[in-house]
Amino acid sequence: MLIRCPGCLEEIPDDAPVCPKCGRDFSKLSRVPEPPPTPRGRPRPEPSSLPLDNETIDLVFRSLKLDTFLPGLSSDQFRKLFPGSGLYLYPQEMIVLRQGRTGRDLYVLCAGSVRVQRLFGTAAAVIAVLGPGDIFGEMAFLDDCPRTATVIAGTESKVFKLAFEDLQYFLKSNPILAQHLRGLAEKRRS
């Protein structure tokens, strides 16, 4: 089976360890970058990386409406298509995204719950509680703007982080996915 390299869009065999055109290494999965130290000098806690299973891949595909675009994709093929993405475990009350920060990654909640809150001056208001299968981070992903809300794990939560670079190709070649994400962003703006 042939897949497209997310770095250069070259068609390559799905078992290639490296893209022959751009040299992207598919054997390494990215980790959450080291967070900046807290004001007191202690590093912020970070989520734990989890292995991907077929159930998680199926949920991500259904949530993003990729199941009709790439049916029957194995977990190994999925990892090669999305090498910068991964599944992470967030303990209860850990911040997943912070309002005002930059970032274009998209998130799919796979288990647990998160609350979305927005700062209005010095007051914070919970504007949504999301459950498994819900997507968040789509506004910054689509508009290349700072995050419009803070997302906090309401319970211990498994979250799939889909790296912006990994999803660019699919947005360009799948208008249904692009329309789905734009519709979700418009709905949440109102």
Explain what this protein looks like in three dimensions.
- β7 and β8 form a beta hairpin.
- About 4% of the residues have low confidence.
- The strands form three sheets. Strands 3-4-11-6-9 form a five-stranded antiparallel beta sheet.
- It has five helices and eleven strands.
- With 190 residues, the chain is α+β, with helices and mostly antiparallel strands.
- The protein has a single domain, classed as Jelly Rolls, CATH 2.60.120.
- The longest helix is centred in the C-terminal third of the chain and has 15 residues.
- The chain is 26% helix and 26% strand.
- It starts with a strand and ends with a helix.
